[in-house]
Amino acid sequence: MRIAALVALLAAVLPSALGVPAHQLPLAAPLAPAPAPPVWPAEEGVGHFSEWSKAQKRQFVTDVVAGKADEWVLVMGNEGGDLDSMTAALTWAYHLSHNNEAGNRTIALLQTPRDALDLRPENKLALRNVLMSPGHRDLLTIDELPVPPRELAKQIKGIVLVDHPAPLSDWEEAKVEAIFDHHLDRGAAPDARPRIFEPVASCTTIVARQMLDELEARKEGEYHVPHEVVELILDAIAIDSKGLTNSQPADKFTAERLLRRSNWRDEKLYTVMARLDDELSAAKKALDELGVRDLLRRDWKGDLVKTADGTPDVHVGFASVPLSLEDQVERTLYNTTDAWFGVLDGFSNEIGVDVTISLHSYKSKRHEDGHPKGGDVLRSKKIKVREMVLAVRPTDNVSDAQATQLFDLVSKTLEESPFLDAERWADYKSLKPRQMIWVHHSPNGGRKLVRPIVESAIAGWKDSLAA
Ligand SMILES: *[C@@H]1O[C@H](CO)[C@@H](O)[C@H](O)[C@H]1NC(C)=O
Ligand SMILES: *[C@@H]1O[C@H](CO)[C@@H](O)[C@H](O)[C@H]1NC(C)=O
Ligand SMILES: *[C@@H]1O[C@H](CO)[C@@H](O)[C@H](O)[C@H]1NC(C)=O
């Protein structure tokens, strides 16, 4: 019964997800692929990492269909899907599936829809450099799961979180086997092992260090780590540490150990890391062609926040956009702030979000006027400006009055937070109800800081109209 249901589901989902025309898709077991080679057959080679990844993906889909999901561990990064999350997940999945026989049923799951992967040009470049297939055929993304995450969570052996402090609500019934993260520890899964929270620049550092430690300690000798894996890891560390100029000792020491295993082993560490950072950062900034909707979903994180009894749980989402609102507004049809809010509202509606926060950061020279005493040096120095936009909309679960309460609650929290020191946007009076924009300059005042502030305020929401 269960298998039949799965097969039906698979037939419905797979053709579009895997790009296979429905009539070519066998309904049951014949999908079974050759198993992944447990160890790389030979040295270097074109796209070995891609082949491994593709084979794991096929095996996983086959096993889920056959009702054998219970043997699988899913390694997942956060839903923003940046290079760090993606690389940390791929690295740990690669390690687990090679480090012991039983661990061969491990796969990295990217919690990003497949078409959103292309909105991150730096990821695209890094994947191309390590010879992954175009179009990400070899990566498993959230929209390609043969069964919905909530269902799958109950069937699999467990999940490993990387670059992510707590499972998204869809996965709350899965066992968290391990956590590697550099965000704030929210106390999730206290029994996970390893469970490492460390404020390094790149979460991939933590994962790679653990991998190297275990690899070098193997009594049976090392398994083969293709240079592509090592180079992808160095990419992730380079971009998050700004070429090791903004890093912790662990980032540097781990990068050094990796460099010796890469094809760049004869070069100097800082030279390599600066070069990788330059290449990837340049790609990352190439956002000229993206419209507002794509800018919002390019780096989006959100989840259901549980609230007290008597109030609906609230779906909260955070976009992070490295452009000013003004720059984004220019990309709307009418070049107006109102048109920009229209896009934000449309996207929030599409994915069912009640409270939407869009965080923008950009460099500005405009402070020249505000700093009369600044000499030439100060004048030419650009400063980082941050904008926070809040919009709350009533939905099926959140009434009009409740939406207003939520808006007031989040507004007040953001406005009063001593960590943000936010000021209202100059023209805030022109905004519609339940919309607000603030400007601030807090260093490290991005989503890592703002999200926990907003989520804990919402978690404590009490409906003042309820009896
Ligand atoms: C995974 O390990 C099991 C048990 O050690 C083995 O029977 C199986 O063939 C392996 N599968 C793959 C895909 O390597
Ligand atoms: C958009 O509007 C601003 C100010 O209203 C103006 O300076 C800018 O040139 C406009 N941009 C476009 C692309 O129309
Ligand atoms: C409303 O809440 C229920 C229960 O929490 C949830 O299943 C449903 O998806 C929510 N609907 C919307 C539109 O958010």
List the topology elements.
Layout: H1 2-18, H2 48-65, E1 73-76, H3 83-99, E2 106-110, H4 114-117, H5 121-129, E3 140-141, H6 149-155, E4 158-162, E5 176-181, E6 195-197, H7 203-216, H8 227-240, H9 249-259, H10 269-284, H11 292-298, E7 300-305, E8 314-321, H12 325-329, H13 337-351, E9 355-364, H14 376-380, E10 383-392, H15 400-416, E11 423-424, E12 435-440, H16 447-459
Parallel strand pairs: 1-2, 1-4, 2-3, 4-5, 5-6, 8-9
Antiparallel strand pairs: 7-8, 9-10, 10-12, 11-12
Helix pairs in contact: 3-7, 3-8, 5-10, 7-9, 8-9, 8-10, 11-13, 15-16
The chain binds 2-acetamido-2-deoxy-beta-D-glucopyranose (3 copies).
Write a brief caption for the model.
Helices cover 40% and strands 14% of the residues.
The portion of residues assigned to helices is: 40-55%
Counting H and I runs of at least 4 residues, what is the number of helices? 16
CATH architecture heading of the largest domain = Alpha-Beta Complex
Overall pLDDT level: 87
Radius of gyration: 23 Å
Under CATH at level 1, the class of the largest domain stands as: Alpha Beta
Sheet with most strands: strand arrangement:
3-2-1-4-5-6
**What general form does the structure show?**
globular
Q: What ligand species are in this complex? A: 2-acetamido-2-deoxy-beta-D-glucopyranose
Structural class: alpha/beta
Helix/strand order, N-terminal first: HHEHEHHEHEEEHHHHHEEHHEHEHEEH
Number of strands: 12
> What is the CATH superfamily label of the largest domain?
inorganic pyrophosphatase (n-terminal core)
Describe the largest sheet.
6 strands, parallel
Unreliable parts: 3-33, 36-45, 367-379
Distance between the termini: 46 Å
- CATH topology annotation of the largest domain: inorganic pyrophosphatase (n-terminal core)
Oligomer status: single chain
Share in β-strands: 5-15%
Number of domains: 3
